[in-house]
Amino acid sequence: MSFCCRYLLPSLVLPSFQANAETPVEFDYRYQLYQEDDDRIRVESTYIRGQLDFNEDFSFRFQWLDDAISGASPTGEYDQDGKAVLADLTDRRRGILGALSKKFGDSEFELEFSESTEQDYLSRGIALSGSTELNQKNTKISYGFNYLDDQVSVPLRGELSKKSYDFFIGASQLIDENTVISVNLTLGYSEGYLNDQYKVIQRDEIAKVTVPVTVQVDVPVTVQVDVPVIVQIPDGFGGFIETEVITKVDTVVITKVDTVVDTVVDVPVTNQYVENRPDKRFRQVLQLEGLHYLEP
């Protein structure tokens, strides 16, 4: 049995300081360690986040992350004992994100850029989102669009691309001081290489194999044989002379003949298949939520 242990160091939140009287700056540092038993998976994550407030309506936030991953991961294959085959895993991900936010009255808009790199993966994204408060700020409408342009390094196939487009719209309504309901709709479309390049599916199957087999068959053959026959010939004096003559007689005999026939046999085999998903996917997600706070 496998047990998972997690260690999380508290965030080190540095106090806000002001670059000048008009531009307050805040940032924090976080380190997180995820460790499974037997060194199965180990992830060390470092985050640095910050925000720059130019004024009460205009701000810039950023995030930098560094993830180091090591351990072993199932490949989808099984050995002769039926145990999952594990492959050594070592990877490092670095990512950066920046976003500008601007308020216009009861509306707020944000433009976000991001980039993430791994050994075999490069992802660049841009997102535009916004929200508008109505009904004396009791109703909030949210909306946005996100685009990702990814490059995937696939063994034996080189660099393949994947593009993703997401649009979302949602609304939340304050019913009373303790109750909020919300509805959100997300439409997503992806195209390109949508597989996990390292995932393998192993299946035990029965293969039909044609095998040439030599067999003996009985073949009837017609042959002529010499058969002695006694005949009587008149001797001219009222008697007969007996004599033996040989005559040819057709007869059927059975002979053994070797012949090759094709025989189909069932052979148990273990096949491995790489993941092969369609190169286009349309996703729709509808989320309904009700939240009620209980007073003590």
What would you say this structure looks like, in words?
With 296 residues, the protein is an all-beta fold. The chain is rod-shaped. The model is unreliable at 1-21 (pLDDT under 50). Strands 1, 2, 3, 4, 5, 6, 7, 8, 9, 10, 11, 12 and 15 form a 13-stranded antiparallel β-sheet that branches. The chain has a two-stranded antiparallel sheet with strand order 13-14. It has strands at residues 4-8, 12-13, 17-20, 23-36, 41-55, 58-78, 84-104, 107-117, 121-134, 139-154, 158-176, 179-192, 200-234, 240-274, 280-292. A hairpin with a 4-residue loop joins β4 (23-36) and β5. It has two domains: 4-193 and 278-292, Beta Barrel (Maltoporin, Chain A), CATH 2.40.170.20; 205-272, no CATH class.
Give the gist of this structure:
With 296 residues, this protein is an all-beta fold. The protein has no helices and 15 strands. The protein folds into two domains: 4-193 and 278-292, Beta Barrel (Maltoporin, Chain A); 205-272, no CATH class.
